[in-house]
Fold this protein.
Amino acid sequence: MHPARQVSHRRPRNDLRRAALRTGALAAAISMQLAAEAQAPASGSLEEITVTARRVVENLQDTPLAVSVFSGDDLTERQIFETTELDQLVPNLQFADNAPLAGNNSSSQVFIRGIGQTDPTSTVDPGVGLYIDNVYIGTAVGGTMTLRDIQSIQVLRGPQGTLFGRNTIGGAILVTTVEPGDEFGGTFRGGFGSDSLVDAFAAFDTPFSDTVKARFSVGTRQQDGYVTRSDGTDLGDTDTWTATAKLAVDPSDTFRATVALDYTESDENGSPLVFAAITETAAFPRVASLEAGCPGLSDGAVPPPGLPDQPSVPMIQDDRCANDLQARGPYANNGSLALGSTLENSGLGFRLAWDLSDTLALESITSYRNLDWFGVRDADNTPLPILHTTYDVDSSQWSEELQLTLQRDALTGVFGVYYFEQESDDTVVVELNPPDNVPGPQRDSDSNAVDNDSWAVFTQWTYDFNDRWSLTGGGRYTEETKRAFPNQFNFASPTIPQVPAQWYEDTFSDFTPSASIAFRWSPQGMLYFSYAQGFKGGGWNSHFNDPPLTAAEQAALHEFRPEEAESVEFGTKLDLAGDRLRLNAAIFSSDYTDMQVTYRGPARPPPAMSGVAPFLTNAGKASIDGAELELTWLATRALRIEGSVGVLDATIDELDNIPLAILPPGLVAGNALPFAPDTQAHLGLAYDARAGNLTITPRIDASYTDTQYFDATNTREIAQLETVTVVNASVALAPSSETWRLIIGVNNATDETYPIAGNSSLTTGSGYAEIAYSRPREYFATINFDF
């Protein structure tokens, strides 16, 4: 028998789907006409862009996949130095930090086409895969990073379940760092700006011989925070150091070995979260010792009907009262708990590549990574101890991948095997009212251990029937085992575990196929149709705060299952007007099933207290439809225009009736998925003007984001309820030798204030909501030297 579902009775919203279809058809028709009329180039042409989105090197315009590609120089020109800024350029990508619960500046929330994950804990997998030099990064914390020494970034949109595997259900982001150079030299960048910004970076190529070469880099970024607490502490600050080393050995023309090390360290004041709202009738039962401190609570206040134990809090501006008057605006925080955000992230990777013959190549990618992070969070953002969290995590991962690639005239094939291990020790302390009777060592034992492993075998083959038609098909089988050891208790009764302290284990497996057909109808244009599946692993919930669960409640709420996405896509890739205009477009439709939704709710019906801990559960299915358009145009020899548009309709269709769980009222069919704005767009203009030996390049970039929600309950108190347009402007000055470049500019030139992340617990006993806003307008000056 299928579980009962909550079904939306609203008329299906097909407007965006129809608009996407019309947009795709119109783009294809116009492009064919333009291609037919294309003439020889009159003012230069666009460079060919190579990608590795299908694990082989190929032209972007021959790849039947929606991919956005940026070189390191592209990112520097646009002043993109953080992964969180990539969504200003890529359609239907949202890359946010300040993930709920973490309290760490490096935590990330990444969504592509409406699919991602907001929970940053070690038991939950990301929904978008992040790869650095082909090494998968298995945690959400550490995904928010400073971009250093970047060769290119590729953003693959849609499920990538065949070649990249689990946890690429939304897509994948591939970061490639610079390889060692053949000659001694390097680059230096130094910058200053608003809020005491200091940015410095240096990289050095050091060839020891014709066959042994190395590259070293070091960088730092320091900037004051932009949210001020009552004690003067600035939140949202940046204090990060990075260092890398890469050694490449080429003993012959057929073999290459690369060893890479990287290290990142951050020590910051805390996330720039501020007070958003509080449920006045829910806050004080959790802090009963403070009830008498709020004037009026003992003066005959009448409790609301049905809640005899929850007195109303008077609406007066008094720091002793938990009400909405605790708000201090988007850049001020009224909390009092000492905060902190630290991170230590390191990795060691080995890449071995053999050319076994002219057509056959073998590659091995081995990596070990270690991540330690710490975050302290004053969730209520008031002087009251309503809810405080401390996260202390020590995790590591090891992975090995072998790839065998065959490339002949008409046939290209990839076969691979993959293995991944992850271990993590998470110590989590949640204080609803600081206890006095629990010693420190016992408090630190409130933890959750994680031990996961995964293996996969995959293959994909492309056959070119002729110069026009090609067919691609592939599949991947993945099997993963998830293990968790929760040792958690309530401080009021520390000898009683929330669930039995033991190892819990389950194994999940899935087969994810993909296929595409491409038709090159002229040298200027290609059409493709693709089908792909992806999945994200299941696991074990790691937070409990209700009274100890019964066996039935534990079976229903402790474990969550994998989620899956099935997507079809129709696209076109065009080089028009004598290779001066590049136009890539796609329309897509996805079925998103068994989606993992974070919710806070009681395991028992009223009058049981609603727990503050978030649970992850498989809550139903959603439909995702949309379209994307990317444009690059050399309008003249001096003027370059870039743009993109993404439209999206990502809506929850049905919700399962979850046994023994009471979902909050806001989680209903018809809600929009988190981080899924209906429209997203970018326009960039750059003009090269000559003045003697100098090139002066003014540049302006504008990005538009429609309204969006940051949780599945569509909580308005933490949502971006107004459209946002962010304008960045700069002027670059460089000599014809291009040995140096000076850039002066302003980011967020119109000084927009808008939400970038949020977290709501309004339906629980703590009743709080917190929100983070964008950094205000900031000025900068950067100089780059190449030597």
About this structure: The first strand starts at residue 5 and ends at 7.
